[in-house]
Amino acid sequence: MGFSEEFVEAAGPRAATRLSALVRRWARVWQLPFLPSRVQVKHNARLRSTVARYLKNTRTIEVGPRFFSLRTRQIDVLAHEMAHAAIDFKHGQAVNVHGQEWQSFVRAVGFTPRARLTTAGARPKRTGLEIPPLYAHRCPVCHMLRLSKRPIKRWRCRSCVEAGLEGTLKITRVAREK
Question: What's the rounded Cα separation, in Å, for the pair 69 and 120?
Fold first, then answer.
């Protein structure tokens, strides 16, 4: 199995040996016995918001610092990423990243397929249901109103500019209700 030296150092030799044995078992279940020798697992200290990721072009799994602090969930995360590698070898790009094929691979090794890992202390993902603030851009002369998600100082009132005036708009933040 291709665990990098940095990974073994960060995880510890016993944990790396245990994880390597699990990966070999999963590869047999997925009928891809060559998988452990063709996928490299590396520690990437720069990963901040992502626990781990599979890189198709280099067939590498990168794990970040949060991976090592997840003592009880490391196996879930590694199974998730190894399933991506297995799908890559078995189906190439013909399937959805978290599609049915990937989900069946994750279930086959005894885990619940999840696209994201929820952990304590992690920032909640924005759902899109939050209402962003609005900014009102109002012309003090003709009272023309234009709204935007952020203040835009370069906007001018077209009517006032055409009339030879400066056209500067007064910007105020508008409170929005849900």
Answer: 11
Token pair, residue 27, equals 């590869």
Q: Is residue 164 part of a domain?
A: yes
Residue 49, token pair as written in the block: 């918001």
Cα(83)–Cα(88) distance, integer angstroms: 8
Q: DSSP state, 108?
A: H
131-170 pLDDT, tens digit each: 677 999 999 999 999 999 899 999 999 999 999 999 999 9
Please, are residues 153 and 171 in contact by the beta-carbon 8 Å criterion?
Answer: yes
Q: Are 55 and 74 in contact (CB under 8 A)?
A: no
170 beta partners: 138
Phi-psi region of 153 (alpha: psi -120 to 50; beta: other; left: phi over 0): alpha
* Domain limits for position 170: 134-174
Output the pTM of the full model: 0.66
- The total domain count for the chain is 2
- In terms of Cα–Cα distance, which of 146, 1, 22 is closest to 77? 22
